[in-house]
């Protein structure tokens, strides 16, 4: 096992396009690191540079204390687990797992010991004599991992391994991969464009946008302290609401009414006319469910109500000035289509009796509102101590 360290990694393809642009990420020995971002942000390119399938234009790729930029893939001792599993259909599970050992000319004894060891860990004992074609998607995934395990690789690399599976199996496999990774304690880099996978699997998550690292942090840090509009909009489902806001003193004027901000947050808004307020759906509730709780309330007409049992989504349209509208539209494009209409999504208690078309009293926890600079997209209220690494902020301080 080993740590992986990327220092100022750049990848320019033939046409000069920087697919990966000055990315630095340190992955600790045994850590589960996620690379996430919308399509085309450079995740696969970065992963392929770690394994050696893609040349590195500049920067240092370190595995343990070795610089591997010029090492062939087979000399890097990493195991890539491909999306399509790449199993041999005519070979048994046993022989599929044994394959890399046979290639390396290992003895039958050694092969048997390692295959049995892997199959025990992966709970594949009863399937060893079966063919991959007769296995479920999850079992096939485990065979592919078995093949990686017997090689004693320093790290596992996954590129969207679950994207072909249906939602239920994807959920099961997610849990399985998380469990195996913990048990094996092997350094893992996992590429996905799915924020749920990123949040649930990763020890830490690197969020990329157009080849540039936006933030590198734990799932909780990303969720609670996104460094900019992009990360804020990408992490979380339904996404964070972005509303035009002006701040005077400690009072924030939102499209629905005014709320009182904590002074330390309001202070960060000084010198700005118009800002974007970031409010997660669950910072709202039906006011009747929060009587006596700290926070502000406002009245608004609820256009659509979706009752999910445990919670209720209330959709409340609002008007935004053109400059805000434009910024939100750009953000929508950056996020690859996640629709950010000028409507508020509020996640209310499941017990809420608010009905469609009704003017309702809504509660909001103003202490958790983030304020974003609409020009740069920066989160002005970020708690830098609990936000992991935000490269954009480091270069300017
Ligand atoms: N062989 C290539 N030649 C030129 N440009 C390429 C090549 N491969 C990828 N790119 C470009 O590099 C950028 C990053 O591509 P990459 O495949 O790393 O994205 P990704 O984040 O994995 O996206 P996806 O989620 O769609 O798989 C894209 O803009 C892509 O067009
Ligand atoms: Mg990709």
Automatic annotation (TrEMBL):
It comes from the Bacteria. Signal peptide: none annotated. The keyword Membrane applies. The keyword Nucleotide-binding applies. InterPro entries: AAA+_ATPase, ABC_transporter-like_ATP-bd, ABC_transporter-like_CS, ABC_transpr_MalK-like, ABC_transpr_MalK/UgpC-like, Mo/tungstate-bd_C_term_dom, NA-bd_OB-fold, OB_MalK-like. Keywords: ATP-binding, Cell membrane, Membrane, Nucleotide-binding, Translocase, Transport. Residues 4-235 form the ABC transporter domain. GO terms for molecular function: ATP binding. Pfam families: ABC_tran, OB_MalK. This is Sn-glycerol-3-phosphate ABC transporter ATP-binding protein UgpC. It comes from Nocardioides panacihumi.
């Amino acid at each position: 096992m080993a740590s992986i360290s990327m220092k100022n990694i750049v990848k320019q393809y033939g046409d000069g396009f920087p697919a990966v642009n000055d990315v630095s990420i340190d992955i600790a020995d045994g850590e589960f690191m996620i690379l996430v971002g919308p399509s085309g942000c450079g995740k696969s390119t970065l992963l392929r540079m770690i394994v050696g399938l893609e040349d590195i234009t500049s920067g240092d790729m370190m595995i343990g204390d070795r610089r591997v930029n010029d090492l062939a893939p087979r000399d890097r001792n990493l195991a890539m687990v491909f999306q399509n599993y790449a199993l041999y259909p005519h070979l048994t599970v046993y022989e599929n797992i044994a394959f890399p050992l046979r290639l390396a000319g290992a003895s039958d004894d050694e092969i048997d010991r390692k295959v049995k060891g892997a199959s025990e860990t992966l709970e594949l004992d009863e399937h060893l004599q079966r063919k991959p074609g007769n296995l479920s998607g999850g079992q096939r995934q485990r065979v592919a991992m078995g093949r990686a395990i017997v090689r004693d690789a320093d790290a596992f690399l996954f590129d969207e391994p679950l994207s072909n599976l249906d939602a239920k199996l994807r959920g099961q496999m997610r849990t399985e991969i998380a469990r195996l990774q913990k048990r094996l304690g092997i350094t893992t880099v996992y590429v996905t464009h799915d924020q749920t996978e990123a949040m649930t699997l990763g020890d830490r998550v690197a969020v990329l946008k157009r080849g540039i690292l936006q933030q590198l942090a734990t799932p909780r840090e990303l969720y609670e302290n996104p460094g900019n509009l992009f990360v804020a909009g990408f992490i979380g489902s339904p996404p964070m609401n972005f509303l035009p806001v002006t701040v005077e003193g400690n009072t924030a004027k939102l499209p629905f009414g005014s709320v009182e901000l904590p002074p330390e947050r309001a202070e960060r808004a000084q010198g700005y006319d118009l800002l974007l307020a970031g409010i997660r759906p669950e910072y709202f509730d039906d006011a009747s469910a929060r009587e006596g709780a700290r926070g502000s309330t406002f009245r608004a007409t609820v256009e659509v109500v979706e009752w999910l049992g445990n919670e209720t989504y209330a959709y409340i349209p609002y008007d935004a000035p053109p400059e805000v509208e434009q910024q939100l539209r750009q953000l929508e494009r950056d996020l690859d289509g996640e629709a950010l209409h000028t409507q508020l999504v509020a996640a209310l208690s499941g017990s809420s009796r608010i009905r469609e078309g009704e003017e309702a009293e809504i509660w909001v926890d103003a202490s958790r509102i983030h304020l974003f600079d609409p020009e740069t997209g920066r989160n002005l209220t970020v708690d830098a101590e609990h936000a992991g690494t935000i490269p954009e902020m480091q270069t300017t301080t």
